[in-house]
């Protein structure tokens, strides 16, 4: 199932939760267990983050984690292995910067990812203007290219982005990099969510950057968004050695589903 | 102003930055057409910057080479000691025009940081500069200068702690503070409109070469030579001459030589996406950006401006790499032959120019852009001499 179909189905049952997990070769033995824990915690899909040497959209936690993963020798093949382990359990998107994908050749890289079970791609440094060839290549490969929108954008631009985005629209919550920052979620978010929904009613809007607990997740959903992405806070828990059960329990506190 | 150079260029940035890039593009287009803006840019270039800079005939260096004449475009005499002033002034005036009151910048050798600090002081803009810890160590005098000029210098401790990491840090600051802050990018790299914008402000170099060479020897030079890190002094030299028959030679940092990549993205890299544009990038086979090494902090960068990538692919310009020790040799030649201490960055270009002069007849003229002065490099050069 493509990412978009999976999220559309899950959206009918309540808010969406999509966790981000960094690919680090030292986690190779944990992927199946981690994916099950995420599913148990209420995740509708998972983002596998492939580290890049120059992650300009990342805050200190993910930057350091990515740096450690690369220093330990994490390679593209580790991403493919992780995807093969995770995709049978949860719909899987890959999140990485433009160069590691471009470097392998756009079309072959995407076809190959699809064959590993990946059904979504998120590229934080891909602006709308550069996204057309990526969108086409992703469409051919059967991968949903998720575009990002951010505070400060005109509603018309958010609408254009939403119309080209597949899977979901990744709405960056505030000015700043990933992780908990001094700048609270932009009060402009409601306008952006409405602009996206108006342009593309069936496309879920997920808010990310800075979602780290039940309160921040509730706040993000209160904008009218369909769910949240959680990355940095989860990375900190995995990095400090939290077990699968504890991760699942923590995720349940912020997935916003009453039944859990 | 072009967004792409052949397939190169573009704007690979998080959406958060798009409104600011569009605003900058618009402000610059309007300013170019505004006679008052152009008059102020000209006036401050002259009265604060010391332009035009002279074109100097290096007679004794020419004799050492024993071939074509070597002329120096003296950007080392610009206020602050490098060509970086040209761009910092232009963008500083744009910042004021956009109503922003805070400047951030990255710096490698410290020359761009110093230029930004000077402009920030002169225009009353708060200035903060990101600089890799390694570069702060090897370019100490410039750190002191920036601080005396009222700028805050933030040490960057990530990655290799050099120019690339300073750009990452500046971009992150900009993402967080984009509403109030202008990122005064110092080289012809980054997302559109920076490569075109910086080339525009640096083109004063090539325009003056055109005028001054005609005045000095009645025609354009046969060859111009400039060093290339990100490539701003080179694009400023090349751009106004690109539709003439003048040969263009860009000189990258070859590092210690041997199998290492140095910092020669055009001669040893592959096309890739770094810091917002598609250009040549030194990278490994997973697309991770490679670590560079060069004796000169200003050339120690794994990417290059996208216009250079296109000049290279079309064959309009040639690019070569010069090793650390050859740059050091050229440094001493210029010091001893002409009484000029060049920065280590243009020392790479000087070495290549002497090499070219040797193979060319005496009637040919070579102009080398001497992009900065060497005071900042005395510690590195003295250590290398021991």
Provide the fold topology:
The complex is a heterodimer of chains A (260) and B (386).
Chain A: H1 3-11, E1 16-22, H2 31-40, E2 46-49, H3 60-71, H4 76-86, E3 92-95, H5 98-103, H6 106-115, E4 118-122, H7 132-141, E5 144-146, E6 148-149, H8 155-164, E7 169-172, H9 189-199, E8 205-208, H10 214-221, E9 227-230, H11 232-239, H12 244-254
Parallel strand pairs in A: 1-2, 1-9, 2-3, 3-4, 4-5, 6-7, 7-8, 8-9
Chain B: E1 4-5, E2 8-9, H1 18-32, H2 35-47, E3 55-57, H3 59-65, E4 69-73, H4 84-98, E5 102-107, H5 111-123, E6 126-132, H6 133-138, H7 140-148, E7 152-156, H8 163-177, E8 181-183, H9 194-202, H10 204-217, E9 223-227, H11 232-238, E10 247-253, H12 265-268, E11 270-274, E12 277-281, H13 306-313, E13 317-322, H14 324-338, H15 344-358, E14 365-369, H16 378-385
Parallel strand pairs in B: 4-14, 5-6, 5-8, 6-7, 9-10, 9-14, 10-13
Antiparallel strand pairs in B: 1-2, 3-4, 11-12
Helix pairs in contact in B: 1-4, 2-4, 3-14, 3-15, 4-5, 4-9, 5-7, 9-11, 10-11, 14-15
Would you summarize the structure shown here?
The complex is a heterodimer of chains A (260) and B (386). Chain A is α/β, with parallel strands linked by helices and 260 residues long. Helices cover 45% and strands 14% of the residues of chain A.
Description:
The complex is a heterodimer of chains A (260) and B (386). Chain A is α/β, with parallel strands linked by helices. Chain A has a single domain, classed as TIM Barrel (Alpha-Beta Barrel). Chain A contains twelve helices and nine strands. Chain A has a nine-stranded parallel sheet. In chain A, helix 6 packs parallel to helix 7. The interface between A and B is large, with 42 and 34 residues.
């Amino acid at each position: 199932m493509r990412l978009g179909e999976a999220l559309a189905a899950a959206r009918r049952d309540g808010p969406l939760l999509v966790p981000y997990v960094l690919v680090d070769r030292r986690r190779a033995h944990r992927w199946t267990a981690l994916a099950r824990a995420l599913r148990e915690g209420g995740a509708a899909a998972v983002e596998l983050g492939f580290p890049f040497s120059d992650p300009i959209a990342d805050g200190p936690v993910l930057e350091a984690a990515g740096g450690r993963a690369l220093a330990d020798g994490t390679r593209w093949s580790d991403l493919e292995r992780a995807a093969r382990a995770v995709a049978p359990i949860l719909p899987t998107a890959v999140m990485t910067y433009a160069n590691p994908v471009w470097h392998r050749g756009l079309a072959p890289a995407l076809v190959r990812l699809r064959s590993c079970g990946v059904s979504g791609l998120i590229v934080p440094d891909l602006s709308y203007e550069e996204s057309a060839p990526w969108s086409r290549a992703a469409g051919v490969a059967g991968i949903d290219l998720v575009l990002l929108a951010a505070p400060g954008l005109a509603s018309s631009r958010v609408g254009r982005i939403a119309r080209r985005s597949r899977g979901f629209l990744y709405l960056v919550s505030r000015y700043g990099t990933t992780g908990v920052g001094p700048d609270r979620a932009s009060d402009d978010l409601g306008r952006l969510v409405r602009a996206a929904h108006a342009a593309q009613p069936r496309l879920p809007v997920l808010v990310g950057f800075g979602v780290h607990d039940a309160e921040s997740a509730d706040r993000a959903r209160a904008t009218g968004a369909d769910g949240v992405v959680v990355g940095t806070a989860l990375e900190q828990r995995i990095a400090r050695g939290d077990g699968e059960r504890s991760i699942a329990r923590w995720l349940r506190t912020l997935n916003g589903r009453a039944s859990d | 102003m072009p967004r792409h150079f052949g397939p190169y260029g573009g704007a690979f940035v998080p959406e958060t930055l798009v409104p600011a890039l569009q605003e900058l593009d618009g402000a610059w287009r309007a300013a170019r057409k505004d006679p008052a803006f152009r008059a102020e840019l000209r006036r401050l270039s002259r009265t604060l910057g010391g332009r035009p800079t002279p074109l100097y005939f290096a007679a004794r260096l020419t004799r050492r080479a024993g071939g074509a004449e070597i002329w120096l475009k003296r950007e080392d005499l610009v206020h602050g000691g490098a060509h970086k002033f040209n761009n910092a002034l232009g963008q500083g005036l744009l910042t004021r025009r956009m109503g922003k009151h805070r400047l951030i910048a990255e710096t490698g050798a410290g020359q761009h940081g110093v230029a930004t600090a000077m402009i920030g002081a002169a225009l009353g803009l708060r200035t903060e500069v990101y600089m890799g810890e390694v570069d702060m160590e090897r370019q100490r005098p410039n750190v002191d200068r920036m601080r005396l000029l009222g700028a805050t210098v933030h040490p960057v401790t990530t990655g290799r702690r050099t120019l690339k990491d300073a750009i990452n840090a500046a971009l992150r600051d900009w993402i967080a503070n984009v509403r109030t802050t202008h990122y005064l990018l110092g080289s012809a790299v980054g997302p559109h409109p920076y490569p075109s914008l910086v080339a525009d402000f640096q083109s004063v170099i090539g325009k003056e070469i055109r005028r001054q060479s005609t005045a000095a020897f009645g025609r354009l030079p046969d060859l111009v030579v400039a060093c290339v890190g990100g490539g701003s002094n080179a694009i400023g030299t090349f751009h106004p001459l690109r539709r003439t028959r003048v040969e263009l030679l860009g000189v990258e940092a070859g590092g210690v030589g041997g199998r290492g990549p140095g910092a020669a993205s055009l001669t040893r890299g592959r096309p890739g996406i770094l810091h917002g544009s598609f250009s040549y990038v030194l990278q490994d086979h997973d697309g991770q950006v490679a670590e560079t090494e060069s004796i000169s902090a200003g050339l120690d960068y794994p990417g290059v401006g996208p216009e250079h990538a296109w000049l290279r692919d079309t064959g309009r310009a040639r690019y070569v790499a010069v090793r650390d020790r050859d740059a050091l040799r050229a440094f001493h030649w210029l010091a001893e032959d002409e009484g000029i201490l060049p920065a280590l960055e243009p020392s790479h270009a000087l070495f290549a120019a002497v090499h070219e002069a040797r193979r060319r007849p005496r009637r040919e003229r070579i102009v080398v852009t001497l992009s900065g002065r060497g005071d900042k490099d005395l510690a590195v050069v003295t250590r290398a001499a021991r």
